[in-house]
Amino acid sequence: MKFVDEAVITIQSGDGGPGCTSFRRERFIERGGPDGGDGGDGGHVILKVDPGKRTLYDLHRQKMHRAQNGAQGMGRQKHGKNGNPCYINLPAGTLVRDADTDQTIVDLTREGDEYIIAEGGKGGRGNKRFATSTNRAPRYSQPGLPGVERKLKLELRLLADVGIVGLPNAGKSTLIAAMSAARPKIGAYPFTTLTPTLGMVTPPFGEPFAVADIPGLIKGAHQGTGLGIKFLKHIERTGILIHLIDAGAIDPQEPLADFTVVNQELTLYSRSLADKTRIIVLNKIDLAGTDHRVASFCRAVPDLEVHTISAAAGQGVDKLIQLLASRLQKE
């Protein structure tokens, strides 16, 4: 299934059913009183978090969602049937905005969350309701109230504890595959990862945690260059960021060049991203000639904690998992 993290849909709650104008008609009763029943209420449109949903693919295809109208009231004071609600199932982490005003309506983050996004119209009252001491035979009833139509913008933001960021080909997909059961596409060329990947990691202690592999950033990503801001939103909810750097690509003359590019893009996109707890990890240390490159990087950032791994060889990965579990417990 294609990964879709944005969709624009139109919703319509049900109209209320009209009330009934009716009079009692039975043998031996010449002038029966009014007995028109009320119309049924229109169905609500309800947003619901479905644990089985992972993307907005279905909603990207189906643009219109309607609840059922209420039924008309009937004689003998029979109430019209209420309209059935329309449930829209969404993955956890879906942010719902008004498409016309861009105002945030609700952020659905927990399994089982429900939100009535559009109430159905109330059913009209039957003529029985309008009988008074001075008007014992009202010949009118109410129409039902119309439902509500809204245009919504849905935006999925992954719910992960840890996000992995870095330039293309830094080894993010290899690392998430080494840490979890996730099997992202891996290749030795930029932008192998075209969609975010979510993997569950089970540490030797503490709770399991989710790790998100975000497609590689490049200079100008905050303005939409490369894969741009399309996937940066998926790490806004994370507690910790792993800043992964290809140790083999470090230039001893400018050891912080790649590190600075990613930092600047995160800061320009969102100050809160730049302020998140971050763990610097140098990858691919199993490659020949990386020792002096790693040393030059560490000398350039003497006040920062730097960890070294080889995701492909599994070197240092278990230690990194333990570190993440410990940091998440503290967070």
Structural write-up:
Helices cover 16% and strands 22% of the residues. It contains six helices and 14 strands. Mean pLDDT is 86; it is low at 184-193. It folds into two domains: 1-156, GTP1/OBG domain (Spo0b-associated Gtp-binding Protein, Chain: A), CATH 2.70.210.12; 162-330, Rossmann fold (3-Layer(aba) Sandwich), CATH 3.40.50. Strands 10-11-9-12-13-14 form a six-stranded mixed β-sheet, sandwiched between helices. The chain is an alpha/beta fold. GTP binds at residues 166-173, 191-195, 213-216, 283-286, 310-312. This is GTPase Obg. Its cofactor is Mg(2+). InterPro entries: G_OBG (IPR031167), GTP-bd (IPR006073), GTP-bd_Obg/CgtA (IPR014100), GTP1-OBG_CS (IPR006074), GTP1_OBG_dom (IPR006169), GTP1_OBG_dom_sf (IPR036726), OBG_GTPase (IPR045086), P-loop_NTPase (IPR027417).
Number of domains: 2
CATH fold field value of the largest domain: Rossmann fold
Instruction: Give the N-terminus to C-terminus distance in angstroms.
Output: 34 Å
| Rg result | 30 Å
The CATH homologous superfamily name of the largest domain equals P-loop containing nucleotide triphosphate hydrolases
CATH class of the largest domain: Alpha Beta
**Uncertain residue segments:** 184-193
Q: Which structural class do you get from the secondary structure elements?
A: alpha/beta
Report the β-strand fraction as a percent range.
15-25%
Number of DSSP helical runs: 6
**CATH architecture annotation of the largest domain:** 3-Layer(aba) Sandwich
By DSSP, the count of extended strands is 14
How helix-rich are the residues, as a percent range? 10-25%
Written as H for each helix and E for each strand, in order along the chain, the element string is EEHEEEEEEEHEEEHHEHEH
Largest sheet, if any?
6 strands, mixed
Strand order of the largest sheet: 10-11-9-12-13-14
Mean residue pLDDT = 86
Shape: rod-shaped
